[in-house]
Prior knowledge:
alpha/beta; eight-stranded parallel beta sheet; 39% helix; 18% strand; globular
Amino acid sequence: MGLRENLEKVMERIENAALRSGRDPSEVKLVVASKYASVQEMEELFLLGVRDFGENRAQDLIRKSEHFKGEPIIWHFIGRIQTNKVKYIVPKCELIHSVWRVEELEEIEKRAAKINKVQKILIEVNVFGEESKAGLPVESVEEFLKTCQKFDHVEVLGFMTMAPYVEDPEEVRWGFRELRKLRDELSQRFSGNIKLKELSMGMSNDFEVAIEEGATIVRIGSAIFEGGK
């Protein structure tokens, strides 16, 4: 199948997952994870109506955003953050999904202040406790949000997580549910620049389960570029 068919299939699966859980499909945003995509593939998706693209590396973000200069594309940074690359990310990105260290916060604040921008971010939470994965442990999230309150040019919109790859997505459903509960609980305790509305969770292998558990953003790459099940 081509990109058009793959995209249509993914959009249909997003819609069905939302409806199954009694949600409005418009509550779920598709961010196309374009790490391995060529600009030609991205151009085709843009013509098909995709506006949100997620990049993992600052150098790719710079190159691709230059290619699409002037187009109404919303760039997301979804990879691990190197503090020395934040100066390239902040001017380009609407939303940075993967913040979890104070050094990252400090650098984002510094770079955003320089261009008079309030940078929207998500806090990455390592719900599944994988040692190889980035993100805060669940028990550290509340304290980290208190730290975020000290920054004038940072706005926290919610949480992000990445589940381990499993054959059966039902095995990771509990983690998505835990993050939704954490979001709901902490949203009652914070205000100001902490607006906990978004849950960026679910990728090609498990996005339907993530949506059923409350995802508002799904990051999908291979199901679009290589074809899904």
